[in-house]
Each structure stands twice: as structure tokens, then as C-alpha cells.
Design a protein that fits this description.
The protein has helices at 2-6, 15-29, 32-40, 47-68, 81-91, 98-117, 120-127, 130-151, 184-201, 207-222, 228-231, 249-255, 258-282, 291-312, 323-328, 334-346, 351-354, 359-374, 385-400, 404-428, 438-453, and strands at residues 75-77, 155-160, 170-175, 317-319. By secondary structure, the chain is mainly α. The protein has a two-stranded antiparallel sheet. Strands 2-3 form a two-stranded antiparallel ribbon.
């Protein structure tokens, strides 16, 4: 049955190799089980409910990727989009609840499915310059780092937004590193940061997961880790406060949070495309005759997973770049993904103990995820200023305005203005110009409309 479904011999693989690869992928990305509740919990969501949604969402969608596409790629709630979800809800001054936020995620998933089926998704990836695509990844990495610094008490950020999804929030930044002697949360965060960093430098498998667990243990004598769960340990998840089906689609429509929906769709578009293509190429899957067809099916599963995740009670589910660890371990078929998905479902048994883990243990992981995402900065040609300047604005506007949407917006507008005027000058001189894709001008107009019609 395994041979008929996954074609193991065709990929020169076997059950043992695929299972080991699936376990490797899970260990590499299991940190999301603890980081996601920490981030979304700040919006008022029950952390056990988020843990449940993360495990079930990742498990089911990853298994679907394996069974229906036969790709060794795992999916889970994405870093960056969960942080964006948190900041929009917290920065809305109560105008947007987490239920409404989940409604926006669900709608973005439906849009994503439509874009995938109509192949507009592939067109958008071609339209947006690669420099801006890389810059989006880098900017999100810095944004996640700021979230980690905040959760670890390294710095405090007072955030107020004049409009529910206003352009530029009022930020009050305060660096608190001088209080490390008196702040046990910060002290534990620093210990965890250097521990995680050393494990990563030494290339220890599952470095971030090990770091979170060890930091949590260190936090017990410091009084930072929540030991209440240890007094009455249970190994069945608490299902009394689940967020399944709690999304508010009508509220999302009535609130008119078009920007939030557009941002989820836009960022997920490039994040997923890069991850799917990169990991599939590494496995040599796109070189096969059916490679492009299967990639299209993979995009459809990914798009469907967005709305499914919202139904379960979590932010956008997306392909994880950590899937490359399983591919490096020999995973070549969907059996790798199915194995990873099954283990995510089994992780539900850890839900009652997940509450022990403090923010100070997950904060270092967020900071170091920023390091990994920052690596894309080297792929930008900084000598070509017409692309480098929009890329730079994309990167810096995300953390400094505390908004992923702002970074993407400034990148698109600056690119179109700089290159549009440049083309006019070159044409006047009779020189050749590099055409701006027509879809970029459509995005330009949408961003300008956002700045005009959203009050600040």
C-alpha cells in the first residue's frame, strides 16, 4: 500500500528513511507548538486552545500535503503572520477581537484559493521584483526579533494605533537591559538566548526546541516558569476552552479590515512560494516531468490550510522552511510529511504541560529565528540602488513602524515611483528601460488608496 500511494522505489527511498525524515522535520519545527501559544495568547486567546489549534492544524494540513501531493513538506502556523495577527488585535484598542482576526485569516484563505486556482498567484510572484521579495523575508525576521525582545523584557513597547488598522502606530520604545539584575524574566531570557545560540552554532539537532525546554527548567528555581501544571499533571488536553469555529467572519467584513486581509494574503503569497519552490528544488522534485503540476497541487493544499487553520483557531498556516531538514535526512515522498503530521497530532498529549513554558523561554527562539530569516539580505544586490532603496525601506519600515503591512506598502510605492521616473528619464534620452510589470502598478494604486482612505 505504501509503495502504491507514495511510489517509494521510484524515488529511491524506503519506509525507514521516510519515517526518520518525518521525525527529523517535526523535531526541527516543534518549537512552533510553544511559540505560537505565547504570541497568540497575548491577544486574549486561551493558550491551551492555541496549542490544540497549532497541533491539529499542522498535523492535518501536513498529512494532506503528503497524501494528496506526495511532497515531503510540512506546514504549521507561520512566524511573522502570527506576530502580525497579534499586533493588529492589540493595536486596535479593542476594535478588533481575536475572533474577528480569525475571520480575516479565513477570508484571506478563500482569496488565496481563488488566486491559486486562477493562477494569479503565480503571476504576482513574477510581477514583484525579487529584491522586494527577499526584503519582505528580512523585514519579517527583524519584526519577529522585536517581538522576542518585547516578550523577554529586553525592551518595552507601548503601542497605540489611532485607527483600528492605522498606517503608523504611536510607539514608545524603552530599552530595559539595565534591569537584568532585578528582572528575573529578562535574566532567564538572556540565559536562554545564549543557550539557544550555542546549540545552533554547534549544529545540535532541534536546537530551538531543546533551548526552550532547558530554559523552562532553569526558570523553575527562578520562579519564572509556571509550575502549577506540575502539581496536578494530566496527559490529556483540556478541551473546554477551544477556539474551534469561534472565528467571526461577519465581524471581519463589517469591520472593513481590508488591509489585514490583504496583508495576510500578500505576505503568505511570497513566503509560501519561496518555501515550496526552494524545498521542492532541494529534493529534486521540480525536475521531474510532473513537478510543476504537483507544485500547483501543493499550493492549493497550502491555500486550503489557511482557512482550515482559522477554523481550528490559529493564524495563517504555511509551508515551513524547516522541511529542508527532513529532505536533508533523505525524505523524498509524502510519507515524510504524513509522519510529521501524525507526530504533531500525538503532541496533543503534551498540551497540559505546555503551560509551564514562560515567555522568557520562547523569546530567545523568536530572536534567533530573526537571524535565520536575515540571511536573505545577502541575496539583494545593494549596488543596484533602484532596487536596493525600495528593499531597504521594506525592511526597516516593518520593525520601526511595528507593521508588516507598512513595510510591504513602502516597498511597493518607492519601487514604482523611483523606477517609473527613472524610466521616463531614460526614454527621454533614447535609452533602453526595464519595464515595470503592470500588476505592480495595480498594487501601487491599492497601497495609495490605503494611505488615503485609512485615517491616521
Amino acid at each position: 500500500m505504501m509503495e502504491r500511494w507514495f511510489h517509494l522505489s521510484e524515488f529511491n527511498s524506503n519506509i525507514r528513511t521516510e519515517v526518520i525524515a518525518g521525525l527529523t522535520t517535526f523535531v526541527a519545527m516543534a518549537y512552533i507548538l510553544f511559540v505560537n501559544p505565547s504570541i497568540l495568547g497575548a491577544t486574549g486567546m486561551d493558550r491551551n486552545a492555541v496549542f490544540f489549534a497549532t497541533a491539529v492544524g499542522a498535523g492535518v494540513v501536513t498529512m494532506a500535503m503528503g497524501l494528496f501531493v506526495n511532497f515531503p513538506i510540512a506546514l504549521a502556523p507561520g512566524m511573522g503572520l502570527n506576530a502580525y495577527f497579534m499586533t493588529v488585535v492589540l493595536g486596535s484598542n479593542g476594535a478588533i477581537t481575536w475572533q474577528v482576526g480569525l475571520g480575516a485569516v479565513f477570508i484571506s484563505g478563500i482569496i488565496f484559493i481563488i488566486l491559486t486556482v486562477t493562477r494569479v498567484r503565480q503571476l504576482l510572484v513574477v510581477a514583484v521584483p525579487t529584491a522586494i521579495q527577499y526584503a519582505i523575508t528580512v523585514g519579517i525576521g527583524l519584526f519577529i526579533t522585536v517581538i522576542g525582545l518585547k516578550l523577554g523584557n529586553f525592551m518595552s513597547i507601548s503601542l497605540t494605533i489611532p485607527h483600528a488598522v492605522g498606517i503608523v502606530p504611536n510607539l514608545d520604545w524603552n530599552l530595559g537591559i539595565g534591569n537584568v539584575v532585578h528582572d528575573r524574566v529578562m535574566l532567564l531570557g538572556i540565559v536562554g538566548l545564549f543557550l539557544d545560540a550555542l546549540l545552533m552554532v554547534l549544529r545540535i539537532p532541534a536546537a530551538l526546541l531543546i533551548g526552550i525546554l532547558v530554559t523552562t527548567l532553569i526558570g523553575i528555581p527562578l520562579g519564572v516558569s509556571n509550575t502549577a501544571a506540575l502539581q496536578h499533571p494530566q496527559f490529556l488536553p483540556n478541551l473546554s476552552h477551544l477556539a474551534v469555529g469561534k472565528l467571526d467572519i461577519r465581524g471581519a467584513i463589517d469591520s472593513g479590515i481590508i488591509e489585514m486581509i490583504a496583508t495576510f494574503t500578500f505576505v503568505e503569497l511570497f513566503d509560501t512560494f519561496g518555501t515550496l519552490v526552494g524545498t521542492a528544488q532541494r529534493a529534486g522534485l521540480l525536475e521531474r516531468p510532473d513537478g510543476q503540476r504537483r507544485l500547483g497541487r501543493a499550493m492549493l493544499v497550502d491555500a486550503s490550510g489557511v482557512s482550515f487553520g482559522a477554523l481550528m483557531g490559529t493564524s495563517t498556516i504555511t509551508a515551513f522552511v524547516e522541511s529542508a531538514t527532513g529532505i536533508a535526512a533523505g525524505g523524498r515522498t509524502g510519507l515524510t510529511a504524513v509522519t510529521t503530521g501524525v507526530v504533531f497530532l500525538l503532541a496533543l498529549l503534551l498540551a497540559p504541560l505546555a503551560g509551564i513554558i514562560p515567555d522568557a523561554a520562547t523569546a530567545p527562539a523568536l530572536i534567533l529565528v530573526g537571524v535565520l530569516m536575515m540571511q536573505s539580505v545577502r541575496l539583494i544586490d545593494w549596488s543596484e540602488l533602484r532596487n536596493a532603496i525600495p528593499a531597504f525601506l521594506t525592511i526597516v519600515m516593518m520593525p520601526f513602524t511595528y507593521s508588516i503591512a507598512n513595510g510591504v506598502s513602502f516597498g511597493i510605492v518607492s519601487y514604482c515611483i523611483i523606477n517609473g521616473v527613472r524610466n521616463l528619464v531614460l526614454r527621454a534620452r533614447g535609452e533602453k528601460v526595464e519595464q515595470i510589470h503592470w500588476l505592480m502598478w495595480v498594487l501601487f494604486l491599492l497601497v495609495i488608496a490605503r494611505f488615503i482612505f485609512i485615517e491616521i
